[in-house]
Amino acid sequence: MLEKAQKILQVGSVVDIQNFLPQLIQAYCKLDIEQAKLEKSYEIYRIERYVELKKEKKDKKNSYSDKDIDIISKKNALDKY
């Protein structure tokens, strides 16, 4: 898609650009939707992991500080997504 857009912008006419613009907007919208889904999945996993680590701390299965738990949950989510 990016190669096609670049080619049209370099050698295409105004009509070519006008015809391609709806496709480009549609692709951008799809990408935006997928990004939102990924962000939501990341946030859900991060919260789940945070809760797990807090429970382990409460059960004395780990000795992480609250700040460490926050950092670890974010890192785990980044690694997964």
UniProtKB/TrEMBL annotation:
Its recorded name reads Uncharacterized protein
What organism is this sequence from? candidate division CPR1 bacterium ADurb.Bin160
